[in-house]
Amino acid sequence: MLGLGTWEFFVDTMFYRGRALLAVADKDGAYDVKLDVPGMDAIPPIVITSIEAEDNDIFGTARNSLLGDKDVPFRISFGVDEDGAETANGYLKVPFIGKITFKNGKKIG
Question: What are φ and ψ of residue 67, in 5° steps?
């Protein structure tokens, strides 16, 4: 399975600038993905509604009540940098806001 562990990203949008944590786990042979934005307790949970894997990517749809309970696409690409460290990059495509990118993810757990 791709990207198992906890990943830390820096997010820079007009609404939020700071850390985002992504936990990728194996749940009985299926992916279990959770996104946490520390310090943003007012945001309702983001629920993954579908998830697939292909090559080095995990992708699917997520839902959040702030987004009108509509499915929004996401994609996370995993790889290895020139120093051999695991990396991750991705996005969440939010209506009326656009693509929120997660760059230079570092595995922290």
Answer: -95, 15
